[in-house]
Model the fold of this input.
Amino acid sequence: MGVPDGLQPTHKHAGTEIGPSSLENSLVITTSTPGVPGSHDIAASSIVGPVLKLQKSYRTETGLPDKERVGRLVTYTIRVDNVPTTERDDSWPATRLKVWETLPPNLDFLTATSSIPGVTVFYTPAARIITWTYPADFVLNPGETTFVTFTVRITLTATTDTSLKNERDRCQAISAEMVKPVRCAGDISIRVLTPQDKTVETASPPTQVGRSFPNRPVTYTIHIYNPLQTEVTGVVVTDAMPSTFVFQSMVRGPQPAAVLTNVVRWENLTLPANGVISFTFRAWIGAQTPVESNCNPKEYPNFTP
Done:
């Protein structure tokens, strides 16, 4: 059985064709009825649905903003808002909500939770997808918000000094009333750091940070991080200063096993599980150290393999 062609709805005006709204979940159908004259032949019907918005944020294990070291943890939070009717009058309660995240490379899944009880969390290792399925009786009304979180570890093989990008398409959500999922608002990135870093302190004058003159002292502090969850022993650290720099003494930490003028070597160090060790030493900038002409500074990098 079908509807006669004469009774089929027709689009009345260009630009009002059936189609999704700007948030891909609501539409308006305008039809006319043959044989009914005047303005009474037009009927407009709105098909409404939830207007969901997703926003993703993160927190690093060490609290560093926008960056974290290999082996460290990152906790992401996905905020799911159902837009209030004061903002979108076509917003509607969302039921049978489902949220999912596809992990990018170089992030290993650890745990996932939700802000409400009863949410089923499932991780598919092969596809690297985390799925949160809300209970059948859960309703996210317009103006309400819910959260899901997941914790990952930056892999030891992640390329350091580069950004680890988590694209918006990896985060999506849908409800029973929607025909197409929504995505997160934007991409977010974390810069991946090496397992070690070094800071420098110079004497005044000059007053600028990281600047000094020849024949002056300079103090270095080295931090070595253990990205593993087990203790590491027998660690060797070598610091190669510029060729005209000379090691003087330790300020804090173990004595070096060997010193070759500008190259300092520490041996048999122990790194606690997921921990860090640090030590500070003083060096001397040789009087013969070249300086840049025309009052421009000359940089001398210091490498810790």
